[in-house]
Amino acid sequence: MATLRQSYIAGVGHYVPSRVVKNAELEPLLNTSDAWIQERTGIQERRWFEEGKDTTANMGANAARKALEMAGVAANDVQLIVFATLSPDYFFPGSGVLLQRELGINNNAPALDVRNQCSGFIYALSVADQFVRTGMYDTVLVVGSEIHSSGLDKSPNGRGVSVIFGDGAGAVVLRPSTEEGQGILSTHLHSQGEHAEELIVKEPSSNREERLQYILDNPQDLFPIMNGQNVFKHAVVRFPQVIKEALDQNGFQPTDIDMLIPHQANLRITQYVQQKMGLSDDKVFSNIQRYGNTTAASVPIALSEAVQEGKIKRGDLVCLAAFGSGFTWASALIKW
């Protein structure tokens, strides 16, 4: 029986829109305050897309170009695209093929779309890792890209959700590892569908015979709904569990982690997880203060920034972890 290969992250990149939206800009719209937002989420500002300039696909392409450049890989050498988003450009087709077109990839490489919201990037990374491990593909592009700002309730009714989310994209390139023990050591994926409606955008739903008329009559159902307390309660349990699962499988302790990159959901969740795992400030990366929650884009944006800032170096043990709508949660343990 052939030994499975490991994959490693050969390149990372990210893109965020140029429009910066500070908390002060949201105060009159949402009847809130900078202090209220920072106290509950840790967010100081976020990026919102510019119509006519930014799309989910082209933001992903901008991030992908940087990742491909770092990896020393031409776009046409990509053999598989795995695109994670909850905010696709179209109802169909998926954004993966649009990214393929944006990058000028004309080799008929397959494009796969993943809809796992906040856990989407790690789910996509796991899928890509399996394709490399089995030898089916050698070069896989994994992208997380989101435009939330166009789908938020920018009124006081939406305050609890609309202060949280931002727009952006991140990408990585996976290649086969030539060194044993280097690269993605393992990935761990979970879900618990009984909580699906705790964080949800219900419409447009295919389950309505007159779905257009329903939306016209009930436009509020186009906005996200979140039971914040319940999401928080589950997140602070599942994050440490899935991190420990990855460490246990590979024979490591929390003290062995050199950098934890959690999904940027809420700074209070990150701080709780950091305390629970006994990690010092220099071993946890947070950028939610500047970007808010960018869902499937948050982990790759944070990973890209951490690499860019020199906070991750060769040989480091890096853990990625996420929790979100579904509920879904996931982790990946990487020897950089």
Automatic annotation (TrEMBL):
Q: What CDD domains does the database record attribute to this sequence?
A: KAS_III
| Active-site residues (renumbered) | 118, 263, 293
One Pfam entry name? ACP_syn_III_C
* Superkingdom in the source lineage: Bacteria
Ranges where the record places region ACP-binding: 264-268
Which reaction does this chain catalyze?
malonyl-[ACP] + acetyl-CoA + H(+) = 3-oxobutanoyl-[ACP] + CO2 + CoA
- Domain Beta-ketoacyl-[acyl-carrier-protein] synthase III N-terminal residues, every copy: 112-193
Under which EC number(s) is this enzyme classified?
A: 2.3.1.180
Q: Does the keyword Transferase apply?
A: yes
Keywords for the protein's UniProt record, in alphabetical order: Acyltransferase, Cytoplasm, Fatty acid biosynthesis, Fatty acid metabolism, Lipid biosynthesis, Lipid metabolism, Multifunctional enzyme, Transferase
Which pathway does this polypeptide act in? Answer: Lipid metabolism; fatty acid biosynthesis
| Boundaries of every Beta-ketoacyl-[acyl-carrier-protein] synthase III C-terminal domain copy | 247-336
Q: Which family does it belong to?
A: Belongs to the thiolase-like superfamily. FabH family.
Q: How does it assemble?
A: Homodimer.
Its protein name is Beta-ketoacyl-[acyl-carrier-protein] synthase III
